[in-house]
């Protein structure tokens, strides 16, 4: 007997200032004006998306001591923006990226619980970590964490936040909205761990959805295990069908040892899209977008993050350098390269030789997310296939333009997913946990 068709989950990522955003396009508007956030959020809600997702940057990126030109408009604080969006949306989930390295659990739990009350149960927290001293220079303690300690602190952070959220009983407030508190329904908290030693009483009543949704992004073995123990949603980088299936099976397979069921963790890779009336038109549009996203300077800057050298003398439309990476500096351009840089450089060199790629062409290829390219019907069919074949539970869409980049998808692809019976025609619940099919957050 065949299983019922799975429902597709969709979320919208506000692209912000990075090399995904084609900020020089005439259609690109402000990255910080509230009107831009409002437009994209309302478009996502019109499309019945699960949530709207904001990234975070705790330091402006630099290249050879100069601010990277893609960061000059600034990076606003997520929860402030989402609190404002709660007033102009009704059902859309509101997800903030908040760093577990440079914040304190009590204050983050308090701010998220407040957003959850303001939005009537739509708050989410994307937990990220940082181990580099470059970002740490903006904070009193600096980049004190070893890379291996990122997840130990993050796991304690989330456990403590959940203890705070759970310290108020659901019926702690008596009466019909009169706001009176039953003191006996507020439990004191006391937490002692490797990173935190705190005690007291939490100040915010229990979240309307039990607990805010927890999102996590990580591909390392530590990150996967952290997600299996802790997260409600994992923001995956795996885009191809085969890679997606392998990642999906691996992470879902880890849940049982923590007493969790497969449906209790949603796997949502990031994805871009390019639509056209024909496949050829869509392919041409996608290629043009990628060349806008990865200009000559961006290609060289990205290469420098891996090689750890000044590569400005190299032609971005020429071959890769014949020198090895300089491993003496762990940070280049404000980012810590992932993994073994020597091995990564060798992998890139082999790929460039196999496909005869220039530096810019290589960077375009290796930095591309999963991208759905084609007619609206073809894109809807492919998204449906990924979900039905357990390569993903849905996707977090990253448009290349702010704020109108999602409009075409909502107008042309969402109706086709609805016709297939794999995407909601309207919201059936009021909270983000309802949208994700997670059930209420509880002990």
TrEMBL record:
Gene3D superfamilies according to UniProt: Luciferase-like domain
Superkingdom in the source lineage: Bacteria
Family: Belongs to the NtaA/SnaA/DszA monooxygenase family.
InterPro entries, A to Z: Diverse_substr_monoxygenases, Luciferase-like_dom, Luciferase-like_sf, NTA_MOA
One of the record's GO molecular function terms: monooxygenase activity
Annotated keywords: Flavoprotein, FMN, Monooxygenase, Oxidoreductase
Name of the featured protein: Nitrilotriacetate monooxygenase component A
Keyword Flavoprotein listed: yes
Lineage: Bacteria, Bacillati, Actinomycetota, Actinomycetes, Streptosporangiales
Domain Luciferase-like residue range list: 26-386
The keyword Acetylation is annotated on this UniProt entry: no
PANTHER family: ALKANESULFONATE MONOOXYGENASE-RELATED, C2H2 FINGER DOMAIN TRANSCRIPTION FACTOR (EUROFUNG)-RELATED
């Amino acid at each position: 007997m065949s299983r019922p068709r799975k429902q597709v989950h969709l979320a919208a990522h506000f692209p912000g200032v990075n090399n995904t955003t084609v900020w020089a396009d005439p259609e690109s508007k402000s990255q910080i004006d509230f009107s831009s956030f409002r437009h994209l959020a309302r478009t996502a809600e019109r499309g019945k998306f699960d949530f709207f997702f904001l990234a975070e940057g705790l330091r402006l990126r630099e290249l050879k001591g100069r601010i990277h030109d893609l960061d000059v408009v600034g990076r606003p604080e997520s929860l402030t923006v989402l609190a404002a969006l709660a007033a102009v949306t009704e059902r859309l989930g509101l997800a903030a990226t908040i760093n577990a390295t440079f914040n304190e659990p009590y204050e983050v739990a308090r701010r998220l619980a407040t957003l959850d009350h303001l939005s009537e149960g739509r708050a989410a927290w994307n937990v990220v970590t940082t181990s580099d001293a470059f970002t740490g220079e903006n904070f009193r303690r600096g980049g004190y964490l070893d890379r291996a300690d990122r997840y130990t602190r993050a796991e304690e952070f989330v456990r403590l936040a959940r203890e705070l959220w759970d310290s108020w009983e659901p019926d702690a407030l008596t009466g019909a909205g009169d706001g009176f508190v039953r003191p006996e329904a507020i439990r004191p908290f006391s937490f002692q761990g490797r990173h935190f030693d705190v005690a007291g009483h939490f100040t915010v009543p229990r979240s309307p959805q039990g607990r805010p949704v927890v999102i996590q992004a990580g591909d390392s073995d530590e990150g996967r295990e952290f997600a299996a123990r802790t997260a409600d949603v994992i923001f995956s980088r795996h885009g191809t069908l085969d890679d997606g299936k392998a990642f999906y099976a691996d992470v879902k397979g880890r849940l049982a040892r923590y007493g969790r069921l497969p449906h209790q963790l949603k796997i949502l890779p990031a994805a871009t899209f390019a639509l056209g009336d024909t496949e050829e038109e869509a392919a041409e549009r996608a290629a043009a977008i990628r060349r806008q996203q990865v200009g000559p300077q961006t290609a060289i800057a990205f290469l420098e993050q891996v090689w750890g050298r000044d590569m400005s003398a190299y032609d971005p439309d020429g071959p890769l350098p014949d020198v090895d990476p300089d491993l003496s500096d762990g940070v280049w351009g404000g980012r810590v390269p992932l993994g073994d840089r020597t091995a990564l450089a060798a992998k890139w060199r082999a790929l460039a030789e196999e496909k005869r790629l220039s530096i810019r062409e290589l960077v375009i290829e290796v930095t591309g997310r999963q991208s759905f390219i084609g007619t609206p019907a073809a894109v809807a069919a492919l998204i449906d296939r990924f979900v039905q074949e357990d390569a993903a539970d849905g996707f977090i869409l990253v448009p290349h333009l702010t704020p109108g980049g999602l409009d075409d998808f909502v107008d042309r692809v969402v109706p086709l997913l609805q016709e297939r019976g794999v995407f909601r025609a309207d919201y059936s619940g009021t909270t983000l946990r309802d949208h994700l099919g997670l059930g209420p957050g509880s002990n």
